[in-house]
Amino acid sequence: MPVIHTEDLKAYYVTKVYGVERTIQAVDGVSLDIYEDEILGIAGESGCGKSTLMKVLFGMVKPPLTIMDGRVQYISDRTTVDISSLNPAALRSIRWKDISYVPQGSMSVLNPVRKIRKTFQDFMGTHQKLSGPKEFQQVVGDHLRSLGLPVDVLNAYPHQLSGGMQQRVTIALATILHPRVIFADEPTTALDVVVQRGVIQLLKNIQKEHHNTVVMVTHDMAVHANLTDRVAIMYAGQIVEEAKTRDMFKKPLHCYSKYLIGSLPRIGDKAYRISAPGNPPVLNDPLPGCRFQDRCPDCSDRCCKETPPLREVEEGHKVACFRVFDEMGVS
Asked: CA–CA distance from 75 to each of 33, 35, 319, 323 (Å)?
């Protein structure tokens, strides 16, 4: 049973400059199920719509971002709600307790002129009633220690912490209420490889201990290989392939997925890595048909006229590609 369900979701950036309206189709027709007790990765190059999809899933929809069609359902034991239609008060009632968000940059969460303690106090005071400073120290201290963080970080300003430590504190803040679903948007950006490993392990440990759902966005396929259970590949606002991580890396079907995975370096392999040719389409006026057509070596006339739907071609493996449909006998 999914905890998040999207159906034909379309979220566009609609702007108007000097009387000229411009629409960017950042998320265009995404249908996706996110299941309980799993880590789902959303991959794709910069500008493909990953972060926009995360914002919509979390209910952070503000102009110029507009939901044009479709819905986002949050499904719990108590009820099923359409996140995309909730008012601010209703959203506040489920945020952080049921769904939480780890943004791209920790400094967008941590106030540079306030100590970490004050940030936690403001957060806990808004979302959970505590009897006083003693209970606050116990609850927050226990949570930090469970994540391998020293309690002394509460007395530090953000600039006194390293980038990796800031990101760990941000994750601690997002998980202190033990939410059912955690959205992590590029949590390892701008961190070196060693620190990335620590952040990845921290997310793994949280998910393993609390059996919650983690949705991880990053363009780094190596992070997906080490962290996720399933991967959805996005290209130009659409999901072009979705599969278990093991199956995706063992047998990618879509040409774009093959380029992404094929670009990963391998120990001892000095072969030249070939990236996808050309450039992504302009999303304010995409060509009809498959959006990967200009960069695909297997493009046919049909690809230039029709948009391939996302279909299941093997158990748990979905792809949007007419060539794959023909090869695997999918009508």
From this structure: 11, 10, 25, 35
